[in-house]
Write the structure tokens for this entry.
Amino acid sequence: MTSDDPEVMDLLGAYPDATEAELRRLHDRLADHADAQSLLDVAYRTLDTPVGTLLLAATETGLVRVAYATQGHDKVLATLAAEISPRILHAPKRLDAAARELDEYFAGVRRGFDLPLDFSLSRGFRRLVLDHLADIAYGHTASYAAVAAAAGNPRAVRAAATACATNPLPVVVPCHRVVRSDGSVGGYVGGPAAKQTLLRLEAA
Amino acid sequence: MRRQPFEAIVAGHGPTVLRVCRAVLGPVDAEDAWSETFLAALKAYPELPDDANVEAWLVTIAHRKAIDVTRAGARRAVPIAEIPERPSAQRTDGRDLDLSAALAALPRRQREAVAYHYLAGLPYQEVAAVIGGTADAARRSAADGVANLRKRYPSTAVQKGTTR
């Protein structure tokens, strides 16, 4: 509220603000209606996990983005607005299945994900690399060189590493199973500690 | 500037738009108008010009939706001799009840001018663009509205406790 007249401010200052609960209810109703009318291009929620709070985002096609807190969730949402659509709302329902499967994975009772995925954030060779990451079984690892070869270009080791480093769907598309040829863990989108946590979880 | 996620628009402007809808329509119809406003805004959002004033854009949509909601209510309504004062649902503070009733009793144009200028913070030029007429006419409507509110709701000067 703005006014050049303090007396008017005094008069209208008594006009009640909406409560948090009222706004939340209206927001949730908006998300439901938007989804029903195919206006919700990107739905998102967060999920607390042993590797920190993950951002999960889905289009009508499927899960399109998983992001670590260290990547900056606001920054990731801004990128989704630019690259997919600004019609983005916090709308957890569309992520129910993804959240449940990730919970099961972190609890050690799920070894693979059965979710529709939307790869529209990856193109070209990077996309090819991601397609082949699913071939590395739970609890196993592969070298960047092996992944490059599987994607059809054995000399593109660096490009394979870049594909892993820019994986828009970490955890679900298992770039954490790709390690250096010398056996060291190597880099990771969520940081080396998160990578080690995931590898230890899968080794248990 | 790149377009923000629509979630930020709802978070940033949702409370103000709800206050405006309540002031114009009363508390019950306000929620329908709010929902219709943000659904229409979501639909049009990708085409919104980069330099648009988002608050003015939302108030313009809310203004149209409020008219739609009023018309739909008029079609549904059972004819009665006199429009009763709208009760402010869920509010127990008598002061707020009185202010809501005083707003509801204003002529529509005055109510709109007061809500869009004082609650949404739009300059009179923008208010005029929303409700029609000139900026001076919008200024007069808001001034008349405030004068009428003071007559019906005169107790503010002695109740400093809720001033902000």
Residues 20-36 of chain A form the longest helix (17 residues).
